[in-house]
């Protein structure tokens, strides 16, 4: 049976009596009252990040950075399993390089930060602070690739980028953010296309299986694709406020950058040819997705895969303080062999305060060790996702914890999928489309005639954009806006 919800507390506060605990509920704004403020409250109170003195930037606090480290480590493992290697390219891009791919320049120009002075001297040429690295990487690839024997080139880099954003939100959209960007070169268009689709599947599997976030994979419309790409592929998630979030993208670049940067190779047939390229990336906005998809009114809810601590142990001390503490340490030592564990034996805080604190930080499983648990040779376990309490016998402690963590992970995915399905609307007329976007929002699945003017009018009148054209979904019908014959299924939503 699920227990009653406890109030949320601020870290660093000490509870002396029940009257103080009643104040803790004010720490986090309820999601239904103000989702944006709830989100910021969780980021700050759970100590994931803080605002930096530079406008639009954040400081990753250790708890938040630990989540990113686990994301990075798992993705890096998956990239290397598919044959990719890591490198690092400069933060600064000469303006002449940046302007050699016209569509790319047009797409990024409003967001580029420029360096015009170095030390006491004006620079002879402006330097762009990396908004993405296609151009500087293209110059290097033109030096390194000479023959078909040099292909494929499968390189990824982990780095920071800068995009001068007007409106920012921690993790979701900041002036500086962290990400990875893969850049590959191939002998044929078919190989490059296969690579772009393969990497999208790597992202889909990671986000769904590892982060428990259901996504819709598909292709971007021409109006929404990456500047300079032939085709952009994406995975789209639905956040807790029924707005969409682009979780990762993979781009088939064709030969656009290869022609701009003269990346050629001598093929086996003796002909000099341009390479075919891809690029693909995921950023720290995925941390924001974790918060918005899984969080609740008590704060953060983390999948066990990425939680800095998978298990927190809280001793329930009383007359048997020393025995309880000794047993708690024994439990911690046993579990540390398999899990990330925190023993919270701080004497200055009450068990109730600790419960609230760790719930706010999203720890998937809490274990309580008290005198009655000692007598029964058990621990009491509480799941963060549902609040359900159960007992785990000491003789099968490790197995019982592993089973509960797996149940938490499956439960988080199932709950998020149910939410997405409940907020995905099949729409056939524009009147219904508009009323949904003005009311409950969510994903709208509708047919589109593929005309840019219809896409633009829908965006102007409703604020919704085409998030993706899902793979393999076509139907006979009419466009949701103009009523002309249409076959292409599109997912629309307002998005971050």
Give an overview in words.
A hairpin with a 5-residue loop joins strand 12 (264-266) and strand 13 (272-274). Helix 3 packs across helix 7. The chain has 15 helices and 24 strands. It has helices at residues 18-21, 35-45, 62-81, 95-98, 102-108, 134-144, 189-210, 256-260, 285-294, 321-335, 351-360, 371-376, 397-422, 430-438, 452-462, and strands spanning 49-51, 58-60, 85-86, 92-94, 113-118, 121-129, 153-162, 176-186, 216-219, 231-238, 244-254, 264-266, 272-274, 276-283, 311-315, 341-343, 365-369, 378-383, 389-393, 424-426, 443-448, 465-470, 474-478, 485-493. The chain has 3 domains: 62-293, BirA Bifunctional Protein, domain 2 (2-Layer Sandwich), CATH 3.30.930; 311-420, Rossmann fold (3-Layer(aba) Sandwich), CATH 3.40.50.800; 424-493, Translation Initiation Factor IF3 (2-Layer Sandwich). The strands form 5 sheets. Strands 3, 7, 8, 9, 10, 11, 14, 20, 21, 22, 23 and 24 form a 12-stranded mixed β-sheet that branches. The model is unreliable at 1-25 (pLDDT under 50). The chain has 496 residues and is an alpha+beta fold.
Main attributes of the structure:
disordered N terminus, single chain, 15 helices, globular, BirA Bifunctional Protein, domain 2, 496 residues, alpha+beta, Rossmann fold
